[in-house]
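> forwarded from #structure-qc
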């Protein structure tokens, strides 16, 4: 299939060694990570807690690589400015996180950052239809958010294809997140996703393995494009 958007592999630092986070961000970027995917969890919207804007700010000087910040928090509005100032290039919010997703997306754009709207596996794709003119990216979760290392939910592939059809000619990228490996990457790439988040599959085996891990995912996805 053809896609006008480049294939991007976005390693999720949720699977990094937090005791050496800065070093690992640098290593995963040098190993070929196109974007750095940053999972922010609040123990409320999802049943796990990770980190806040101070950590994003702390790792910002380590690399010029694009920071793809995935907010799994509710509410989101009180924290958008802090994440923008910390160095997020794109901020994704969940459509399930509150009643005013459109307002939150307006706020992110007003802060000069790119916008993403994320959907849990159980959320119908129609939920993003009214928001498409407000987003640069649609993020389809291929696991229930909260933890790395979960099994890929294959039924989301039909949602990827449906979102791609809804997007039409708009310059919106499609990202998938959860359970992406060299085995599952072709399924989502064939359905139309161009940004593939990978946590455990990117970071497994330590820094010497990062470049091989990323290429294995990239090659498997690339094989079903063009
Ligand atoms: C899950 C996070 C993911 C996670 C993916 O809530 O949003 O980004 O890190 O991890 P893997 O690739 O291990 O499923
Ligand atoms: Zn994520």
């Amino acid at each position: 299939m053809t896609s006008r958007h480049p294939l991007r592999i976005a390693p999720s630092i949720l699977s990094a060694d937090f005791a050496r986070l800065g070093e690992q961000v640098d290593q995963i970027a040098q190993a070929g990570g196109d974007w750095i995917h940053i999972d922010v969890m609040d123990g409320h919207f999802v049943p796990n807690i990770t980190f806040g804007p101070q950590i994003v700010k702390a790792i910002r000087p380590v690399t010029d690589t694009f920071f793809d910040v995935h907010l799994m928090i509710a509410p989101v509005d009180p924290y958008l400015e802090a994440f923008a100032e910390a160095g997020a290039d794109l901020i994704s919010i969940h459509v399930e996180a509150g009643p005013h997703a459109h307002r939150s997306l307006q706020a992110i754009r007003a802060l000069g950052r790119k916008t993403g709207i994320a959907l849990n596996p159980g959320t119908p794709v129609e939920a993003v239809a009214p928001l498409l003119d407000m987003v640069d990216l649609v993020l389809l979760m291929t696991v229930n958010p909260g933890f790395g290392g979960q099994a890929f939910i294959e039924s989301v592939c039909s949602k990827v294809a449906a979102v791609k059809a809804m997007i039409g000619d708009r310059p919106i990228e499609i990202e998938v997140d959860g359970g992406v490996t060299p085995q599952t990457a072709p399924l989502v790439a064939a359905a139309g996703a161009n940004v593939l988040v990978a946590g455990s599959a990117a970071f497994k085996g330590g820094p010497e393995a990062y470049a091989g891990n990323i290429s294995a995912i990239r090659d498997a996805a690339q094989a079903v494009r063009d």
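QC bot note: The mean pLDDT is 97. The longest strand covers residues 35-41.
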